[in-house]
Amino acid sequence: MAATLICSLIAVDTAHGQMAVEGGGKGGRDLTEISLDELVNLKVTSVSKKPENLAQAPAAIAVITGEDIRRSGVTTIAEALRLAPGLEVARVDSITWAISSRGFNDLFANKLLVLMDGRSVYTPLFSGVYWDVQDTLLEDIDRIEVIRGPGAALWGANAVNGVINITTKSAKETQGGLITGGAGTEERGFGSVRYGGQINDQAWYRVYAKYFNRDDSATPSGNPAGDDWDGLRGGFRVDWEHSLPTCSRSKATFTRAPSTRIMSSRR
After folding, report:
1. CA dihedral in degrees (89, 93, 94, 95; nearest 10)?
2. Cα(39)–Cα(256) distance, rounded to whole angstroms?
3. Using one digit for the tens of pLDDT, what is the confidence trace for 95-135?
4. pTM of the model
5. Cβ distance 158 to 113 under 8 Å?
6. Quick one: which H or E segment has residue 249?
7. Alpha-carbon gap, residue 147 to 195, rounded angstroms
């Protein structure tokens, strides 16, 4: 098995922000400053579609925080899901992933509902998820809630085996600039840049772009599989507050990737 090496990692955050834990106050807080009671009372929303304490949620749920992702060193959302107990996360090749819960895992598994900021990201072709397409800055992820078990009564037909809800930070929480980069043997090169600003007293925005270049995987005989690929992605988010007790949000993502990735992810 080839070893993976990631080196020359650079991260510069001009805003000097810290991860914010919902229910722990309005400002960002370091996890080392949070008491055990606050960690137990971490708020989740995926179980009953409303905020409730993690310890009191009537479901088998695990929460992957942004700090967990940062400390693990993963570079994709699919890799980050390996931190959740009870999920079957299999990397098929350099491009495609097979992720499911409660067995019956394959490339076209379609019994697991995946949400990003409350919106389903499944493809209508087979009601599953192209994990190589679902991507954003990992630094912008606040938490990933993973429910293992049936959730169709609340979420619909796709939630037969579980629910994955990826929640990103608001534009207000990601003000200032951020630059990251690195290189290695498998991740041959990757980098991202993000900037967040304020439009007025009630509106904030952020824009980002990222690039990656991944080496090919190996066949059982040890030869290169010829599935190396690269991608360029970008997006923006705008949040604004108004008199109602809610916050409106607009979000968009743009992707450029070679045709080899598209063909491989749909075979």
Report:
1. -80
2. 39
3. 899 999 888 788 888 888 999 988 889 888 888 899 988 88
4. 0.76
5. yes
6. strand 247-256
7. 32
